Protein 1
Amino acid sequence: MAILKRGLAGEPVKRLQKKLGIETDGVFGPSTEQKLKDYQERHGLPADGIAGPDTFAQMGLYELVLLRVGTSGESVKRLQTALGIQADGHFGSGTERAVREFQRRSQMVADGIAGPMTLARLQVFQEITPAVVEKSIIPADGAGKPDAPGHRSIWDSIKTMFTPG
């Protein structure tokens, strides 16, 4: 599941911190967690200090929305509706199969994970534009375009940081 929580570090954490208006050191520590809880509470989200797809969508961080088996919530319901399957809000094996089939038909990598490129093609969020898809990738070898060899997901930059306390 593509979530951000205390103990993680990387480019997605920097983007979250920037959106929260705090120091962008890329390390999800106690202050990031508290600011996120405050944001979630103010916007009617579960104030658990964990940023997932629904929090990212609420914040306008669509380049970080990544839906896969185990994900649940409103974003999953929207995906399921776009796929024409039962919209229960839980990304299970049936949703994964439907995503894979859509990806095959669309001549995409059929990995069963709905990231910005898949969500854009399905028109799950009107806010996911080609520019947002481009922001969701980082170059692996100087490339950087979604269809270029050597690109990878921004989520590939996540590292676990072991901090005392």
Protein 2
Amino acid sequence: MKRLIGLSAAALLLAGMLSPASAGPGPDGITSDNVEHVAFVPFEVGTATGARVIGKFLYVTTWRSFSIYDISDPEAPVRLSTTPFAGQDGEPSPIKFENEDVATNGKVMIFSEELPQATLHVFDVEDKTNPVQISTLAGAGQHTMSCILDCKWLYGSDGAIIDLRDPTKPVLMKEKWGDGMPATGGHDVIEYKPGFAMTSSNPILILDVRNPIKPKLLATSQEQEFIHSAQWPREGKDRWALTSGETWVGGVDSRCDESSAGVSTWDTTGWGKTKTFKKVDTYRMKGGTYTDGNPVINAPFGCSSHWFQQHPNFNNQGLIAAGYYNHGTRFLNVDSKGKISEVGFFLPNAGGTSGAYWITDRLVYAIDYQRGFDILKWNGKI
């Protein structure tokens, strides 16, 4: 059985305020029985793009601004500030890309403007009520930019290595972190434990980045379809490395099929000796009737996976919360053999979910390009 959930129309007029799921005349979306819609946080013209949680603070971005929330009470986040991105002559202007994988350590926050000017922007966010841009670096912007070694260094999706030890004076040190490796760039880089990184590239690379200017290649995956994002639970101690892909199709009819990107598991058993790991399973979306939790037609991104996160208690098996664009948030279970099954969902009305993030062992924030963000409660088995 599915449940329809509602949103107060008045709440749409109060950016950053919450409306309970039961309020209002219109539907917010549809959920499986084990998922509860707790609240909705609207954003400016929708466009909530990405998020990061550091301690009790949530950093949420759009293409026009970023906001910082106090999430001490995770069911009722309190907005502390909204900072517009400045354009020419100080006027607000979109930074096009990258805001979707928020790079911050809670002290500095990085935006890598791929378009139109390929500029790196560095903000001081220690005062959550008054973030300030403290530096820029022309020509260094790439699609994503990731913190390495507590944001003292940055790795870009096109290979840039940036020295950020003095955040007021970022320095481009190297054009390609993957020089001489099977992949010289990728969509994203994560530091899965201090000094060690995993790249969203084809193939995936495992790197020792303790000397960030001279990363050392430790292992590669099998070659594979486009990798959008990656996680290695428990700081690389877990058997399963996790990835998502991304597919996009032009036009108005983008139906789900075996070419649609999904979330995958990779067996890392013995990787230190074999220097490789292999894919075990991929979970892809399917078309449906909407009331069954699956849209009929999805254009242009609807069937694709995007940003995801494993449950805090993931240990060689467990839950994943994943953004799947027009398919909303999907709760997936990885079993002890690496097989993936869907165990719950939230399908928003007129949504495009960018990513899903575990805030507690029960609460997930679903960041949505077209809505803002939704607070979901997982009531199923952990």
Protein 3
Amino acid sequence: ATAPPRARVPARARPSALLDAARRQLAQGDTAAARQTLRRLDRARPDRAQKASGALLLADALRLDGRRQEAVAAYAKVAREYALAPAGENASFLAAEVLSENGEAAEARSALERYLASYPGGRFADEARRRLKLIAP
């Protein structure tokens, strides 16, 4: 089977179009194309929420490439810099998820606890509490 052709992104694409293209590229597993698309984001004058989404997508690309330690660091950076944005909450939980997948129980526990301290009623709060119960103290 051959890979689907890369989607062309107009040279003067708006931030929302670039983010949509990067999401499609990641869904197709084309992390290199997604990173290339996201490098164009700053020139397109994104707003703060769009910058946060772009940073989260870059972290996702690292994760998909198997660069898990770099992905954790990237997620942690998004969580710090965009704590009040939805991307910040997502990144906080995703950092814990990657640590858990790596078998880093103590670090995953700390990350889940940080997530719950920051987002006690958050989107992933129930899942974070469930996962904490599964990780030995």
Protein 4
Amino acid sequence: MRYALAALLVSLLMVAGCGSNQYEKNIEGKNAQLEKDNSELKKQIESVRSQNVMLEKQVQTLAELSPETRIEGLYELKTVKLTKYTDFYDKDKNGTKEKLIVYIQPMDSKGDIIKAAGQAEVELWDLSAGEQGALLHTWQVSADELKEMWFSTIAGASYRLVYDINEIVTSFDKPYTVKMSFTDYVSGKVFADQFVIKP
């Protein structure tokens, strides 16, 4: 009986010891996780502080500039023209010109081509048809549409607008006039140009 009681006490002590070891391991694991979380939070706080400093500098810079200065700093649109590449094209090479491709080129005060923000209107005219039939078609191009039409090559950059003219132009043995107006979204100015497509 004495031996049984002693064995029972030893067993209980061993179980208690194992439980204690497991408890200590759990505490150590939780402490390590808390330290890791704490380190991550410190990094996030530092990142937010850095962003706040940058935003404060940005607000200060903008507050010191007048709206006119900010607008002028973007660009100064001087002219918007139709390029010589504006023409009718036979896209599928079947002998029939079915597309009108219009190239609009915005330029700043130094003569550099710029991707100016704005909306455009394009008109196709047959000036030989008299007043009643002179305007053949009008196309409106929103600012969102226009910015997707920017086109760059070795020869230069411009907005490239492509239109179907199957039902509009049936004869190509006479000149047609393309008229364009461009509303600049920075200055509000409206620029106009026209180009004659010769037969």
